[in-house]
Amino acid sequence: MSLLDTPFLEKIYFENIRPNLYKRFATHYQYGVRKGRSLAEHLDSVCQFILTVTSVAELAEEIRKVILAAAIIHDVNKLDKEKRNVKTLARDKAFLEEQLKLAGVIDFINNDEDWELVRKLSERHSGHNISDGMMFFPEDENIKCYTAMLIAADLFDLGISETERFKKVQNELTIAFKRPCNLLRIKVTENRGYITALLLSACEEVLKKHNLVHLAFFPDGILFEGGTLPSKDLTKKIAFVWQQKIDQVFSGNIEQLITPGTSGIKVDRKAIEQDLEESLECVQALLEKKKAKFQLKYFWDLKFYYVPIKFWNIFIKINCLFAVLLLRVSLQKDIMKYSYKAGINAVNKAKKLVLDLLNNAEEFAISEGLKAVYNSYRAAGIKTQKVWEIIGNIVGLSAEQIKALEPFDPLYGRCLFAAKTVNESGGMNIVISALRDSFDKRLENNLSNSTSEVSDEIILEVSKVLNLPSEISWQENNELENYINADSKQRCSLGATYGKVEKLKKPKMPLDTKVQMFSNRFPGGDDDEPVKRGNLIAALAYELIAVGSKLPTSKKHQPLYLHFSLPQGAAPELLRIWRDFLKRTAAVNGDGGTVTVDELKLYKDNILEFQANKAVGIALPKRPNFIYSVVTIPVIWGDVNYSVALLKSLRLALELSLSLERGFPFAVTGNLEINPESNYFGRVEGIPSSLQPLLGNGSYKRIGHLSVEERKKQVTAEEIRDRLRCIGNLAISVASLEKKDDCLYDLARAVKRPFDLYFVLYRWILREQDDPNWEYYWNKIKEPLTTLLNSLMPEQNELLTKYLKEAAQVAVEGKLWGSSFKRTAQVEPFSEFITAIRSRKSHMPWDVIFAALVQDYHTRLDRIREHGVGATKYGKVKQYYDVLRKLFAEVYLDRPEKILADKKTLEAAYLFFLQDVRQQAKSNSETESEEITTVN
To answer: Could you tell me which residues are beta bridge partners of residue 182?
Structure first.
């Protein structure tokens, strides 16, 4: 990660020292109160806490370096192979010097005073008293403060209850800062992506005004420190700042909140609240576009209204047929449709009052503008009849004209017939005036419904999500009661049923987001069609993702969400570095769209390299304030099934999370909401049953979190990453780039019976080439396949593999194969073995079958070889089938149906083992030849 703007000491730490810590100690398990945290994570937590605390205390840079060096090696007893005690090791300068060199901080120590300070801090970090003769001599008072900082940093990561731990840290920081110290831990009960990031950002902004300092991050919140804690309820203040931040997001996305459609231009309330004038400009721009595309060609006489009613349907059908054949605009069909619905008398009456049909582009734009005005007034809660009275007063329609328009459809028909009159009375300017008036009424309506500067829903959500002391009580038990007692139209498909409920509109949701649809059909009640509804905050969370992510142009695919958390106890500086990394990654796409991973480099060399892509990819956030303790990243993989998308998403998450520079906990889900509290390093939700043998239960810890015994029982994050690396490498080795996803899916499913991987690979090689070079392919797949099988079945199928390899060894020694190097000839003796088992008569003993098999295949070799085969060859054939006899007896228990079920897999595995033995024999032959040449 780039650290260009990072302070000097932080830059050195995060760029050089921290990756080295994880490289050396990521697998170092700790016991006792440190159980569940690797030594690398503990040292990293201590160092980051020291960097933050020494910065808050405003210490000189040279002193900060020495304290950081002491922090890196403070657990000297865990670094010593001989397990000597802390007191002895702290006074062993040679040992300390060696550890400081390994840590890369030896340059921080410049003189004897620095060495002495490192010794004292290392010796006293656990809270022990001074134990040497220096206790009788005066000492720099600041050393006590430095020691308290290191003790606080060490306690900060202690495995005890949070209340007790923070109390201890608070006491030490009181000594370190030479003033009262209080800690305030802010937690969130759930994380909903960008909206939660804005909430925590608002919380930090408010608390900073109360002289609180940001100390550390947690996946579920933040930790603050201050001399005094606020005594007032800050819920409303935080809610106000939160709402401002949300509004600022939408203020830069007004165009996305104004959507054109067949039912007219619709303006979202948020657009008006942000900037009324810009909203009007956006509507005008859309009307100009409609005006430019207008085209009206009549293919009938305008007196078509006088067609007798009994011929009306026929007339419409004929003209609609012509409209389709001649590609006429749909406007003509609308004119006919709504004229017919109103009736001939209504049309004639309107024409007499100068309410005639539009016939040019300007009038068409005015008609669309009137639709937008009507929609806006209705959104303000005004009834239909009242709406047209208001519109008529503004645009200059008389009472008779308004009454004459009543038979027509309020939205479609009236606008078509009123457009000409409006154009003559004032044109587009008067329509915009009506639209402005409707916007004003909507704002007044929202203001009258609100009792404070911030909506009640926002205030309630703050009290519900944050653990701040609040005057507003939130009763979670009431959620079920609210749902039961709610009006059928107020039940939520998304979020809890309380407060204001809105319809969930597709353009406001990220791509093809799946949301449950509730039906309002109840006996004796409403019979509306099923709709998707959500409470204000839940809907807003999805809208923020849609507005704030650099989403791709593809609208067909459901996204998966990658949730990356900052590590527990992370320093504020790590957030800035993380934001910078994501910003630079997004900049790969200069057009501001999604980025994708170069899968060829990822699968072949395990290298993460990002590329621009318009259609699919990783939708990184547009704003840095969307990235806080957790960042949510939608990922769209295109035309692949859910399983492949999950495999790719998990691989990406693991590669990012387990890199030496990051080490971030993660979650891969199909939902925006996650529970931020977790005891696991990685979580995956929604694993299909076909992928569970490969991916386990979906909850992973790192190697350093588990003891040696626990590692045998649990699958770690590193192991899952290695498995995915192997199947990715195998897929790219045997399949073309176009088919790699299909191959990846086949390999992932084959893991249910790991030995089937041989046949899957064998089948894919034959699919790509008619006459493949088996030796070439075996060289490519041998290493990843062996690694994958060792991970999946370290002890299973061991006997089967042993006998197949022995048979291949005997075959190479005795040259037991057919008359060519084709695939069928190479596995010929093994195929004969399977054939003999399949054709065996029930009355014949197995010993007879195998004796006949030896004789028959020896005769076969004698026939196909140019020179006859003798007793030596017979001995090899007998040895070969003796091995297979053991395989049949010990692995398959002499049950032919079982071995015949595995026929294809066994032949594929035997072919690969044969290539392996051949290569070993060739290598040994070349080595012996070189040795003879050297001797001569």
So the answer is: 226
Backbone angle region of 617, left / alpha / beta, with phi > 0 → left and psi within -120 to 50 → alpha: left
Quote the CA–CA distance of 16 and 19 in Å, as a whole number: 6
Dihedral sign (CA 137, 140, 145, 149):
negative
Candidates 32, 45, 33, 54; CA nearest to 74 is: 45
pLDDT at 329: 44
Distance of CA 32 to CAs 150, 160, 272, Å?
Answer: 20, 10, 59
Span 532-561, pLDDT tens digits:
666 778 888 888 888 888 888 766 778 899
SS3 513: coil
Q: Classify each residue of 719-728 as buried b or exposed e, where b means 16 or more C-beta atoms within 10 Å of its C-beta.
A: bbbbbbbbbb
Which amino acid is located at 34 in the chain? Answer: R
Handedness of CA 617, 622, 627, 630 (dihedral sign): negative
pLDDT attached to residue 466: 86
Q: Give the tens place of pLDDT for each residue, 812-834.
A: 988 888 877 788 888 899 999 99
The tokens for 387 are 């709406």
Q: Give how far Cα 244 sits from Cα of 534, 580, 627, Å.
A: 22, 24, 17
pLDDT value of residue 914: 92
CB 433 within 8 A of CB 446: no
Quick check: 734 and 765 in contact, CB under 8 A? yes
Reported as a pLDDT band with limits 50, 70 and 90, residue 618 is very high
Helix (H) or strand (E) holding 222: strand 221-226
Write the pLDDT tens digit of every residue in 335-381: 666 665 667 777 777 776 656 667 778 888 888 888 888 888 888 88
Return d(Cα 269, Cα 257) in angstroms, integer: 8
Per-residue pLDDT of 113-123, as tens digits, reads 888 888 888 88
**H or E stretch covering 610:** strand 610-613
The SS3 of residue 216 is strand
Burial label, 643 (beta-carbon count in 10 A; 0-12, 13-18, 19+) = middle
CA 139 to the chain's CA centroid: 54
Q: What is the pLDDT of residue 524?
A: 44
Q: CA distances (Å), 574 to each of 19, 52, 61, 217, 247, in order?
A: 13, 11, 19, 9, 27
Q: What DSSP designation does 767 have?
A: H
On the question of pLDDT at 32 being above 90, the answer is no
Low-confidence winner among 7-21, 90-104, 352-366, 824-838 (lowest mean pLDDT)? 352-366
Beta strands in 100-212 (DSSP E): 182-187
CA dihedral 649, 653, 656, 657 (to 10 degrees): -170
The per-residue pLDDT for range 647-670, each reduced to its tens digit, is 999 999 999 999 877 789 999 998
Q: Both tokens of residue 81? A: 């192979």
pTM of the predicted structure, to 2 decimals: 0.78
Sign of CA pseudo-dihedral 374, 375, 379, 383 = positive
Cα–Cα distance between 400 and 406 in angstroms, integer? 10
b/e code 417-431 from CB counts within 10 Å (16+ = b): bbbbbbbeebbbebb
